[in-house]
């Protein structure tokens, strides 16, 4: 008895004290907390200084805390839905990794802040030979890695040698440069250091997207010394040349970056510290922004946008659209969808505007072709299959399916900006097809299986989408519809169009390339291997005092220019 | 007693063996390829085949299983496919995060649940009894994710009393020793941090406590009602023992055994099953760790995660069984 009652007493005590401290904390902190949110929302460091006695009593208890409070004035907290898997950008294709590594690493070139135009980064200038086979880069001088070593041409060679000698498990390098060293289609023949600050790339064959590829997040320059020293650990303690240095990573919790005091671009970055924290639930993440716990949240539900816009403490930033969501028809199966008339009929049956109103809350535009308008080569002359169920029925009758038919339509189990609610969108498509007498059986399966089965042609039709990697038309048309491309999920094979795409890959004249891509889109429009659905505009929500933040079309951006105003 | 404990611990092995075979088989049978998930939408079939080979996924099921068990025996919980880190090292902080949340939640659940059940039985068929039972019914039926979001909305967004997510303020850098932040901050004398950590744990632990609290209240009530009808209680009352003593001393002790069983089971459940709460409150716990691993088909993490949860579950039940003897001396283990 005594033992038990002691136990109970103890539990009671713990609980009561917890409740008391918790409540009192809650009450004192009410003003403090709103100042906290004031600090994040509109006031900045000044409130820190003027912070009430409550905070003084906190900070008097330990030095570290007051330091942090001071740093708090210029610390950005960025909340996202999932943790990164790796912080060595070459080892991954995942957006949550790039979002962080963009701050730590820099490539030879980079994208302009709001477009995919290529601008200088670690290379201040470059020359391309007339045959498109030699690229000579002149590097910035006086750049150092976070570990203090100088950045020189040899380091560029080291990084490329590391990637070119890798394999598919280690580095997705091959997806952009045609393979690894020794592979038939490998683009890069060799990389040599001409002198300390000049690097020469010799290619096996011209690659139109070469320079755009180099600007992608994976191809950031890592410190060779740190790579040697850390080995496998490099992916959890990266060392680059970027505006922020890696400090700490608590998995599933947060990644902390601090200002690189020796950054080669004067006056940057403007923040002292950036913290990437993980809040998986969309609503909970937005709650954290509203309470002022965080300054930036991504993955905002389109349905929440209007409520954020109404809140004076918050702002909505639009990410320029560089994606396409589509319904794909799998080729080589035994079903009526193999008939182009049927595919066109279904194309006429989809009310894209209605989908956009219902699931994107206006944060999207209907897609009439296979790549987004922001990418050079977009064919604006194409006229979409207008929504016209009567015409659809007529086409079905012509194809001999006046009584309709059945097919399986798979929808994605995960939310992506281009398909935020797979199931609901599939349901609308289902009822639209039902109107013209076609029965779509909708279903889903886990994401890994979905990709695997879609790519091996096991579905009649499926929903999927794509966000561009490098802002080039090739990255949409050839990647998604070219013969033999790993991401051609429909298995669509059209020699004529494929030849146009291959030609466009190897010439460097932009005008000519654009012409080829426009032709390719005309063929695609006629053949209708997909029903292109939408180009969506993902949004990022920030506190009103965050300025200088520009969401990039590729989906990841450094926060170099971000400031927290007072 | 010692023999009993040893016997129980030995029983752990067949349980874990069965568990691991089961988990291994299920993962093997369901579709989904870790290589595909790792490589994503850009993967070529050759690349996928190559990665499968490197991960040993092209080996037959039983070879993969024996490799895994072989490693387990050397204390190696495997290497995560996704992060390439050692599972044991990655799992530990997550486990402790969940343990901390569970302890606080169970403390709340037990304290309120047991007392509510007692009051309900004591004041049987009164308004108080009905009120407790209605609350218990609501508590059992309330979806945790909804409760969590409502808590956030009311106490964090509207009232600004408490923070809405995570274990600490992003600026509070707790230096982990035990990974139980409440204890870590106290040991290090970081009282401001302790307060911060405590404020963060309140909302998720209350959300997590709701269901066990309701279940405990109901079991306590019915168990107490049985005991309070027995002769010795009537005798005690007849002798003029005060109501409070009768209830808390004479009755509770005999009524507490089924309650303890339920508490043990619930605590075990919370350890493995707090995924929803952990997701909504951004709590980096074990449930979310395993859930993410399932999403990513990260076999080694799934296996080891489940084994760890199973082991803890077995141990909690062992502890509960041993406590029976402490509470009720008539129970002997021989």
Automatic annotation (TrEMBL), chain A:
One of its GO terms (biological process) is peptide transport. Residues 24-71 are annotated as: Disordered. GO terms for cellular component: ATP-binding cassette (ABC) transporter complex; periplasmic space. Residues 117-482 form the Solute-binding protein family domain. GO terms for molecular function: peptide transmembrane transporter activity. Belongs to the bacterial solute-binding protein 5 family. This is ABC transporter substrate-binding protein.
TrEMBL record, chain B:
Keywords: Cell membrane, Membrane, Transmembrane, Transmembrane helix, Transport. It holds the Pfam family BPD_transp_1_N. The keyword Transmembrane helix applies. The chain crosses the membrane at residues 9-30, 101-123, 130-149, 201-220, 255-281, 301-327. It is a multi-pass membrane protein. CDD domains: TM_PBP2. SUPFAM superfamilies: MetI-like (SSF161098). GO terms for cellular component: plasma membrane. Residues 95-324 form the ABC transmembrane type-1 domain. Its main location: membrane. One of its GO terms (biological process) is transmembrane transport. It is found in: Cell membrane. Belongs to the binding-protein-dependent transport system permease family. This is ABC transporter permease.
């Amino acid at each position: 008895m005594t033992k038990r009652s002691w136990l109970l007493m103890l539990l009671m005590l713990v609980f009561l004290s917890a409740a008391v401290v918790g409540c009192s904390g809650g009450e004192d902190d009410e003003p403090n907390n709103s100042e906290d949110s004031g600090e994040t929302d509109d006031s900045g460091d000044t409130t820190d200084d003027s912070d009430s006695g409550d905070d003084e009593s906190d900070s008097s208890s330990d030095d570290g805390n007051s330091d942090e409070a001071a740093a708090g004035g210029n610390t950005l907290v960025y909340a996202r839905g999932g943790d990164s898997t790796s912080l060595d950008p070459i080892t991954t294709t995942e957006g949550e990794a790039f979002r962080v590594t963009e701050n730590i690493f820099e490539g030879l070139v980079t994208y302009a802040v709001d477009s995919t135009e290529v601008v200088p980064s670690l290379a201040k200038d470059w020359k391309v030979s007339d045959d498109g086979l030699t690229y000579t880069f002149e590097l910035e001088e006086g750049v150092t890695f976070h570990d203090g070593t100088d950045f020189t041409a040899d380091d560029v060679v080291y990084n490329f040698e590391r990637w070119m000698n890798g394999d598919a498990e280690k580095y997705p390098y091959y997806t952009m440069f045609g393979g690894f060293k020794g592979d038939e289609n490998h683009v890069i023949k060799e990389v040599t250091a001409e002198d300390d600050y000049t690097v020469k790339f010799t290619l096996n064959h011209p690659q139109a997207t070469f320079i755009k590829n180099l600007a992608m997040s994976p191809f950031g320059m890592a410190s060779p010394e740190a790579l040697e020293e850390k080995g496998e650990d490099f992916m959890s303690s990266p060392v680059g040349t970027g505006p922020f240095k890696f400090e700490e990573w608590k998995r599933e919790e947060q990644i902390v970056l601090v200002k690189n005091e020796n950054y080669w671009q004067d006056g940057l970055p403007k923040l002292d510290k950036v913290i990437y924290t993980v809040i998986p639930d969309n609503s909970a993440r937005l709650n954290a922004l509203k309470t002022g716990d965080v300054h930036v949240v991504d993955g905002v539900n389109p349905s929440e946008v209007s409520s954020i816009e109404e809140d004076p403490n918050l702002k909505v930033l639009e990410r320029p659209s560089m994606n396409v969501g589509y319904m794909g028809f799998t080729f080589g199966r035994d079903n009526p969808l193999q008939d182009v008339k049927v595919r066109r009929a279904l194309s006429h049956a989809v009310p894209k505007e209605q989908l956009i109103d219902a699931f994107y809350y206006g944060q999207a535009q209907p897609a009439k072709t296979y790549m987004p308008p922001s990418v050079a080569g977009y064919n604006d002359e194409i006229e979409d299959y207008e929504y016209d169920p009567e015409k659809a029925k007529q086409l079905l009758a012509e194809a001999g399916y006046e009584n309709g038919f059945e097919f399986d339509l798979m929808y994605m189990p995960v939310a992506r900006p281009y398909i935020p609610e797979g199931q609901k969108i599939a349901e609308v498509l289902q009822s639209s097809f039902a109107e013209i007498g076609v029965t779509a059986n909708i279903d889903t399966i886990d994401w890994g299986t979905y990709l695997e089965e879609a790519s091996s042609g096991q579905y009649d039709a499926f929903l999927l989408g794509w966000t561009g990697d490098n802002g080039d038309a090739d990255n949409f048309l050839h990647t998604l519809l070219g013969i033999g491309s790993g991401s051609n999920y429909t298995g669509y094979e059209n020699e004529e169009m494929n030849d146009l795409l291959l030609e466009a890959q190897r010439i460097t004249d932009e005008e000519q390339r654009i012409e080829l891509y426009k032709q390719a889109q005309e063929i695609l429009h006629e053949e209708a291997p997909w029903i292109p659905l939408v180009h969506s505009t993902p949004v990022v929500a920030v506190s009103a005092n965050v300025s200088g933040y520009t969401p990039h079309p590729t989906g990841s951006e450094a926060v170099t220019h971000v400031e927290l105003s007072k | 007693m010692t023999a009993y404990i040893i016997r129980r611990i030995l029983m752990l092995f067949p349980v874990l063996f069965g568990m691991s075979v089961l988990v291994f088989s299920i993962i093997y049978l369901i579709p989904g390829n870790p290589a595909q998930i790792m490589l994503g939408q850009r993967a070529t079939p050759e690349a996928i085949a190559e990665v499968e080979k490197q991960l040993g996924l092209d080996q037959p099921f039983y070879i993969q299983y024996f490799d895994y068990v072989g490693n387990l025996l050397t204390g190696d919980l495997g290497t995560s496919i996704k992060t390439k880190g050692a599972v044991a090292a990655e799992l530990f902080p997550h486990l402790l995060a969940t343990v901390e949340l569970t302890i606080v939640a169970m403390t709340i659940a037990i304290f309120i649940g047991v007392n509510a059940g007692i009051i309900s039985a004591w004041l049987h068929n009164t308004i108080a009894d009905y009120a407790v039972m209605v609350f218990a019914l609501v508590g059992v039926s309330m979806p945790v994710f909804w409760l969590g979001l409502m808590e956030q909305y009311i106490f964090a967004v509207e009232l600004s009393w408490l923070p809405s997510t995570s274990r600490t303020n992003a600026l509070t850098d707790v230096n982990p020793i035990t990974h139980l932040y409440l204890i870590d901050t106290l040991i290090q004398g970081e009282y401001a941090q302790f307060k911060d950590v405590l404020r963060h744990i309140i909302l998720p632990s209350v959300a997590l406590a709701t269901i066990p609290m309701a279940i405990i209240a109901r079991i306590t009530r019915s168990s107490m009602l049985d005991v309070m009808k027995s002769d010795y209680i009537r005798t005690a009352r007849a002798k003029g023992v005060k109501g409070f003593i009768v209830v808390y001393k004479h009755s509770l002790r005999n009524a507490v055994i089924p309650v303890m069983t339920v508490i043990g089971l619930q605590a075990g459940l919370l350890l493995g099953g707090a995924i929803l709460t952990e997701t909504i409150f951004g709590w980096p716990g074990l449930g979310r760790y395993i859930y993410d691993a399932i999403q990513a088909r990260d076999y080694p993490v799934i296996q080891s995660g489940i084994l760890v949860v199973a082991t803890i579950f077995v141990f909690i039940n062992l502890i509960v069984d041993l406590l029976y003897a402490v509470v009720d001396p008539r129970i002997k283990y021989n």
